[in-house]
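Changelog-adjacent note: as of this version, every example in the card shows the full chain rather than a window. The one below runs 183 residues end to end.
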Amino acid sequence: MKIEIETNRGYFGNLLLVSGNGRNVGKTFFACRIIELLAQKHPVTAVKISPHLHEIPENAVVLFRTEDFIVINETEISDKDSSLFLQSGAAKVLFVMAKPENLHDAFQYLKPYLTSGPVVCESAGLGEIIDAGLSFFIKNPNITIIKNHKQAQRSQIIENDGQNLHFDITRIEFDDNQFKLKD
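Full-length structure tokens:
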């Protein structure tokens, strides 16, 4: 509650946010491991937010579309990150394409889908507009954090050396519609 009063950003205790220091640092791998763990006890909603507009497959299930953003219900099996979330056990997967300046509007549309149960979201920019129950920033130990430094400051930083993510995901628990870390 104090976060809402101080920042007016909105607090989503049931949302676990994964961001990182660029491409290929292990964000999707980490999110998939969390989804696998949580899906053993809860129906998980997964969200992949891309700041880039991609071509929309003709068989895509489009839930909402404007000139500024699009929200797709991922149902296809492929090697796309959003499909990997589905293959990891997520009950529902939403793929959002929104430029950073339109992310707030896209998130307003997403909110009704994110009210209960665990939500695992991979997004570089969402941490700029909301506060999540848990937030993780994945980085390569050999690379200095440059991109998303504000998000890194709000997150638990996890190093991925290409072989191991240096974090015990069993420390993550979801109870009473809130994410928490066990000691």
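Structural remarks: Confidence is low (pLDDT under 50) at residues 1-7.
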